Amino acid sequence: MEGISKELEFLFQLIGTDWRSNLERMELGEIDEEHFLELARHHRVYPILYHRLKSSSAQTSVSVLRRLEQKYQFNTFEMLRQSGLMERFARIFNEHNIRVLFLKGPILGADLYGDISLRTSGDVDLLIEVQHLEKAEQLLIDAGYEKDEYIKTVLNDWKWRHHHLTFFDESKKSKIEVHWRLHPGPTKEPSFGELWKRKRKSEITKYPLYFLGREHLFYFLVTHGARHGWSRLRWLMDIERLAQQDLDWIELQVILRKYWSEDVAGQALVLANKHLGLPLGHQMEPLVHGQRPKQLAKGAFYYMKQMINLHTEPLPEDVSTYHKQHMFALMSTQQKLLFMLSCLYPYPEDAETLPLPKPIHFLYFPLRPLLCVYRRIKV
């Protein structure tokens, strides 16, 4: 916690488990209001901040509360709009025999916070089976969405190197991400069938919306948050809330071990304990035991204290370098080996460097080392 601003320290205390007693001890008049609000926006925690500050008897700046209220109200309308979108596409996909699981959004607000208005979400994320991807794409286009053609591919590497397609409806400022994997590859993760078997049904709409079972949701959220360096505290709050639900910790450890994610789960629990006050029960001990989870947690604090936004590219060179090193450090031994092997598989850059007819694209395998050397010399 050394070197962090008082505003960030207050933010940790306000969104943590023991926020009520923390709020009684705080002297909110000493903070820089603009910086505090900037942190609230960056970490996407302004709805819960407004809800807690409003419900407390602490002396809060009228200006801060009013501006948080504006953001909270806007988010409430946005979550209602996204709920409607989710219901619409759940119905459309079901009519075309496409099973769909919703990953985040208003469903998490209701499940983790008891109210869709208390969690933010920028888009609708849904997961389908890869064989239905082309059909889903056409359904979205028919509904007025345009596909973001950002994926470059060679030898069908998109199926495992990428994990979602993005669709926009500019007229409605709407964004939908259609996933066929939970994470970009190469990695090992549950099949759609395994996730579907443990699914839950949300009650936020009249039409049934299905989302991940608690243990699979925990696995997904810790791996997603770790991949983004926990650069938004909203993701860590999700873990703090989920870890206090009725999880089957024995089954969860089986899932985490099977999919090489025990260390990132430990990292998330250590961060949630140190910064949000999550009590570490005996059932969590196997995940936080040893030095590695603590070391990984220290590595993630780099993103929090500097308010780093990994979604805005290009990243500064120092941030990009650190992020690559941290992501590699997060990998298990199996993941590191798989990652190094994947580097031998041709990349789209190889096809750009030396365009070849599609029938002989297999030649990129033996040519890849030479093409890599050529690009380095050229630079």
Automatic annotation (TrEMBL):
It comes from the Bacteria. SUPFAM superfamilies: Nucleotidyltransferase. Gene3D superfamilies: 3.30.460.40. This is Renal dipeptidase. It comes from Ammoniphilus oxalaticus.
